[in-house]
Structures
1.
Amino acid sequence: MDIPKIIQDLRDELNQHNHNYYVLDKPTISDFEFDQKLKQLQELENQHPELFDENSPTQRVGGTITKNFQTLVHDYRMYSLDNSYSTEDLTDWETRIQKVLGNVPLQYTCELKYDGASISITYENGKLKRAVTRGDGFQGDDVTNNIKTIKSIPLKLKGSYPERFDIRGEIILPFEGFEKMNQELIEIGETPYSNPRNTASGSLKLQDSSEVAKRPLECLLYFIVGNNLNIKTQFEGLEAARNWGFKVPKEARLANSLEEVFEYINYWDEHRHKLPYETDGVVIKVNSFQHQDELGYTAKSPRWAMAYKFKAEQVSTKLNSISYQVGRTGSITPVANLEPVQLAGTIVKRASLHNADQIEKLDIRIGDTVFVEKGGEIIPKIIAVDLSKRNPDAQRTQYISHCPECHSELVRTEGEANHYCPNFYGCPPQIIGRIQHFISRKAMDIEGLGGETVALLFNNGLVNDFADLYELTVEQILPLERMAQKSAENLINGVQKSKEVPFERVLYAIGIRYVGETVAKKLAKHYKTIDALQNASLMDLILVDEIGEKIAQSVIEFFENEENVHIIERLKQFGVQLELIEKHNPNATDKLVGKTFVVSGVFEKFSRDDLKKAIEDNGGKVGSSISAKTDFVVAGDNMGPAKLEKANQLKVPIITEDDFLVMIS
Ligand code: AMP
Ligand code: ZN
């Protein structure tokens, strides 16, 4: 078997599938098939560490931690762009250019201006070498590891390409992915991100590249620099980049005159809201590289390019009232109720006012005429008050002091922007919100029960917390509005069936603040039972992989509350899974309980992952490095010399895979 060839073929195939999916939006295999192939490649690479390639598609999942990003100097400076705001500005620009060029016929490339974070990526012999942020234009941060996790960026190029070049583009977060990320944050009671641009640019500097890998980032390319490129125009450059495998938006157009540039601008000013990502303008570039060379640069920007900024769409309307929403965690959000008005293709009736500080800053009063804008945020924003239209009798807005739902006095923790209703157990939207979270799809996924029914059950006094769900009977719920025998039975069955939901999802469902799906999995795996989690100290929790102080503190607070403990106790009695049930494995034994193993080298009978799994299946633990706590080192071929020395030094027995097989047989 020609292993190097099999591995290379798999890599090429997976690269092509990534390209089909992330660049062309035309996948040709299912996600499942893709994952299978990736797994197969991963296993082969594990068995053949000598064939490691930093640009293999398996490296996309990330996992490197960067504490300090290294500063790197750009081979070619990254300039800014001059801005223009009107057709006159652009006409003036053309006049200036033509003075230099001598009134030659000119072509322009028109592109959309993507709103994200700019990046410069270097390719050498078709392979991604490094990726650097813009920084001050002369030097930026080395974010190569993070960039490699973005799947629309090719790690290896197709076709024929220059030996070495830099390609520039914008890292963006399309609206859909952004909203999904925010939805997940809201579900765990975290504050959502404010706009896609800042979130995209913040992502580049995350220390853990596997976190970056989880974000639905994209990279849109717009410029190539280098020597001997063999490209003559900007437009050709875009096409070349597309052929090499980059994502280059198809909206770019060649214009033969400023008139055509204006047409492009007008078209996109109107249609930009239909794009899947944010644009704040158009970039117009002199097409010919020869002309570009003649024009050169000012101290800050190329003379051959110009950004045209769209006006943010703004309308004015009347503020009818302010209402206050109470979230599942008790957090209060003020919402402006507006006289309905058309804006950026939708009818706007409401706008978020964020918090008390924002209201104070705007000094917004009921009856005011306000300017509303739709920028990066999906939810429109109130920019300012039209003071010229203010009624002289308008009263200053008093922020509420009591919960609009349960009338408890609100609290505001120092350093936090939002007010809270502290009546965790008596405030209806908090109670209903928690139960709705409990039954949601990623949590207990209770079939036959939806969010509105939860409110109905609560309002009829049938449930007050999620444990109450398990005591409901068909007779109790039949009298409810629109509840037929069949749907009542379905609901009760759904609730009963949820007792099979595994511990990790139950842990997510009970809604400990900051404990999202992933954290719940980590905690469940580590502690295995709710009792162990409940008894964990703050220190203990912080020591768990990836659990920070904020989460740890929140877990402690949750269990300090007697009401919570009581609810958990009742869930336990009803038979909800509050312990991890290890999946039944016919090969599992407890022969290795209490023993810690470190695995090193290459094996014949196992892949490294299989060996690790075999250790765990038999009750043992797998350590990552040799220490005084290591009981055995399982060594294959090519064990690292440092490990060997360490094992000898600590007198840790070194065993072969055959020894290991005997141990578990
Ligand atoms: P500004 O940050 O307003 O000076 O605008 C310059 C930035 O626009 C560049 O640094 C790029 O990051 C970004 N940009 C977005 N789309 C394009 C594009 N199509 N061509 C060139 N630059 C772009
Ligand atoms: Zn309340």
2.
Amino acid sequence: MKENILIDTHAHVNSEKFDQDRGKIITNAIENGVGAIINLGDTIESSKHVLELAEAYDICYAGVGVHPEEAFEMKNDDFDKLSIWAKNKKVVCIGEIGLDYYWEKDPEKRDLQKRIFIQQLDLARQLDLPVCVHNRDAHGDTMEILKKEGKGIVGVMHCYSGSLEIARELVKMGWYIGVDGPLTFKNAAKLPEIVKDIPLERILVETDCPYMAPAPMRGKRNEPAFVKFVAEKLAELKGMDFEAVKRQTTINAKSLYTRLK
Ligand code: NI
């Protein structure tokens, strides 16, 4: 893989929103300088699908895992499936996993989210893989779990929405901060300030497509080709050349996800 490419480190090209034109979307990504797309599973079924995409397209890689919004009491059989798939060289991480208290208010279901988050952290440790973490309105519990149960594991806090303090803490722990569409929004709040503060060496660019398209595509269906708008905004905030940001974020993605080739 060349260095002068962009990597969309968090996508869902497996989404049904791409069922009509998936091949075209991948070609469009390549034509826009994207050299790798990491699709993240959020259920057992979609984890299988992202792996199939990784096998079908050179440019596609995968993460396998169960998302907090899809939390269910996972059985041995589910963990066996994830660990068998994770042995494939195109699976770069366990993800996306984590906590989502924005959509989940029921304390018992939040406990279930915590349990499967911890179990999947254990799986990542056993397999010696990094993790991709989704955290929405659950910053305290996510950090507590990472510190207690996530020892020795590195990863990315994707679609970062926490405070500057937590971002600095994550950087100290050797973690990465994932930024996407919201960085480019006019009402981006504190994210631009956080991005200016933390080292570029710890930032990953992503789309989280098909949702949250960056400006100037806001409101449209998002796709991996649009990751360049996120990188452009990052370059503007860092006062750096776009090419330099492209190169560095690609180096960052490869240092976290060592199976990217
Ligand atoms: Ni996602």
3.
Amino acid sequence: MRHGATAWPPELAELYRTEGYWRGLPLGLLPEQWAARYGDRTALVDGTTRITYRELATRVESAATNLTVLGLEPGDNLLVQLPNCHQLVLLVLACARIGVAPVLLLPAHRERELVALGRHTGAVALATTATTRGYDHAAQARRVAEQVPSIRRLLIAGCEEEAGTETDLDALLDSPPVLPAALPDPDPSDVALFLLSGGTTGTPKVIARTHNDYEYNFRGSAAVCGFDTGTVYLAALPAAHNFVLGSPGVLGTLASGGQAVFVASPSPTAVFDAIKTHGVTHLAAVPAVLRRWMESAERTSIDLPSLRVVQVGGERLEPETVRRAAQVLDCRIQQVFGMAEGLLNYTRPDDSRWAAEETQGRPMSPHDEIRVIDANGEETAAGEPGELLTRGPYTPRGYFRAPEHNRTAFTADGWFRTGDVVRRDAAGNLVVVGRIKDVINRGGEKIAADEIEHLLAELPEIADAAVVPYPDPDLGERVGAFVVLREGRTLSTGEAVQRLTASGIAAYKLPEQLWVVDTLPQTAVGKTDKQALRRLVADRAADRAADPQYQH
Ligand code: OOB
């Protein structure tokens, strides 16, 4: 196990093995098994590229060899920032084949996040594209490498010429091995990949997912969701996110012999075209994206006969939208309440109508442990809301290299405090009713309030800042900031956004409203009273909604 990752207690590890949850197989060896089972069936579809299961196995093996020849070794970590494409899958599996763990960044992340994560994980290389949607990722990669001394190689897809420490990622993933190399046997209880949590404090926390636990994550999910060789899964949201990667996602599709199709954007046009062209049966959405699809489907009276299930998660979905979406898209809506930290809940096909519409489902595994506790740490009475705590075979026992944070994020006996407030019904279904973590959920993208507060407080105009969500009909929540200015200073929302952008953070984290106030309200112990600020924002939004001037 890599230094800084927390192992499960040995007796539980033993139980998970004997119960068959942990199979002791490195993820990078799975393509061989899949190839033996599914041979010449199509595994991946990306534009005009089609890759069969047999080809996938060969290409993972040769990419792993090329990575080894390049000097990557078991125990190394690698930053990966790629859009939705087949190269992402090849790279993740090739890394897993040789015990190199990719840190899966979202395309929206920027220099500041890359530098922080590169330093935190001691990454030895960074893999990205030359440009995506007009953004120069290659230039960003060079800036990041200057600030992260451990990075000694840049792997850039579509890079113009290979020079010095820069290698063409496409060539590395597409060409037969340049030289032979003996490949190591990775330890299946070691880290296979790193996912990012948005749900905590400060810069994104890193979650080390082992081969054993992540393989169960997507295999178990695929079983619960009924994935099989007929499944055509469309990756429309970022495939580096746990929802699309492994819940059951692309990897769950591959483990089931289905086809995983990639599109670069979740726009209704791109998604509907792909559904029609490839006969897509399953795909994942966050509520904000689902609403865009519904609106477009209604406007164009589109018919999508192949579509069977749209999975919706990342944020609470109202029951009314579940009903309407099922009608408009003429398919089943499956609710998914998951987290990069592990626990996944799914509504099931045979659920009652009530459970399917009103709840966010129940845990994927019979060995997921659930507690719902009150402020005193006591289990709440049945049906009463409380904080959700969890442990289980695919919920790691700590964030990577974060001992300080782990003391509060986990209990002494290994329960992960999700920060989500839930109710649980007699059948074990969970309803998410709120959260106690200081996070903004902007259309499914999580933003830690204190990360933005710190960035705002670094601006010379600002004496103090508090970041809170404000309600929004499209995205559910957006980022708002209350700021106290220093004597004689002024600052507009536009200026603040410009300055934060220049500091190199992902655009989705930028405040969209800035409210200048004289002081921030305080709690009895002298902390900023976030509750009061949240109420203030909600009241303002309610007043606005009631005011005819704002109705359209
Ligand atoms: C997914 O993962 P993350 O890590 O981006 O965010 C996790 C958090 C949860 O703790 C919860 O606060 C919220 O997102 N959340 C939901 C939800 N699904 C996630 N809140 C209400 N209702 C839901 N259905 O978001 C994620 C990972 C795997 C599968 C699906 C979602």
4.
Amino acid sequence: MANGTLTVLTGPSGVGKGTLVKLLRERHPDLYLSVSATTRSPRDGEVDGQDYFFVSRDQFMAMAEAGDLLEWAEFAGNCYGTPRQPIVERLARGEQVLLEIELEGARQVKTTFPEALRVFVLPPSLDELERRLRSRGQDAEAAIERRLARAREEVAAADEFDQQVVNDDLDKALIQLEAIMFSPIATPVAGES
Ligand code: ADP
Ligand code: 5GP
């Protein structure tokens, strides 16, 4: 049976992960992007089951306790986690799977899927990160402050990752990410260790 590849993309909130992933998916429609569960409220335009599975904290904890999440973490006051089953099934079918998650979750995946390719997206500077968070205009001031405080810690962990991509010029970052993910050296994931 063919084995798929698992890529984990992380980096501080507002760095442009979602933007990069959207462009990547347009260019590679076969890439499977995991849909996470979260206790965060939907933003304008977000669709349940498409952007996230929006769940209550009790529902989230029940999933975590049942072992239904591949990884999970608390981020800026909300819980986020990756449903395990769709990932395991798609990897077994030989598909290419992408997780877009925060630092603690990415660290957990290193334990469960050591073969996963782990990529950290860096901002050109923390000032630019703040500008992007504010220009996105989707988070309240308190949420932006929490995200910025966390960003300082996250950026310091970039060296733990296999690859670093600086998202300064969007097109260049996309090309770099594409080269990393779609180069023939990506290692097949045999399964959980
Ligand atoms: P994340 O998913 O990492 O939280 P987003 O993809 O939502 O970040 O991007 C945050 C904001 O920054 C958005 O308004 C997006 O349009 C903008 N952005 C993303 N990449 C760039 C870039 N290379 N240059 C300037 N702005 C960018
Ligand atoms: P947002 O609230 O901006 O959608 O996401 C906040 C952070 O949670 C982002 O850094 C995003 O990558 C991360 N995130 C989204 N889904 C998951 C997940 O399933 N697990 C973990 N650990 N982080 C996630």
